[in-house]
Design brief:
Number of domains: 1
Structural class: mainly beta
Distance between the termini: 11 Å
Order of helices and strands: EEEEEEEEEEHE
Low-confidence stretches: none
Strand content: 35-45%
Radius of gyration: 14 Å
Number of strands: 11
């Protein structure tokens, strides 16, 4: 079960247009748990990767890393999750991003 403060977002693959590029980001309200085998926004979840954050971080005005907390990415495959974001920030694959997350050993 996700914390009430967790933000679940669908991050779309970056699309290049003639003048600019665009990545669709959509907040998801319905998902309160995410598990292997789930179907979220048409994305079949086959891999989940979580990372611990030692510092807070922001992109513009939006916080995406919380010190002492986890963030998780979920996607179609291990390869897509591990390679979802290019070095330049472009999104190579659609994925679900959840943060902050508290991981319990229960």
């Amino acid at each position: 079960m996700l914390d009430t403060g967790s933000r679940v977002r669908y991050i779309g693959k970056t699309k290049d247009y003639v003048v600019t590029s665009f990545t669709a980001v959509k907040d998801l309200k319905a998902a309160r748990t995410i598990s292997i085998g789930d179907e979220i926004e048409g994305l079949h979840i086959s891999a989940i990767k979580c990372s611990f954050h030692w510092t807070d971080a922001y992109y513009g005005n939006e916080q995406y890393m919380w010190r002492g907390r986890w963030a998780c990415q979920a996607g179609r495959s291990r390869d897509e999750v591990e390679n979802a974001v290019a070095d330049n920030g472009d999104k190579r694959f659609d994925y679900i991003h959840v943060s902050p997350v508290r991981l319990d050993s229960n």
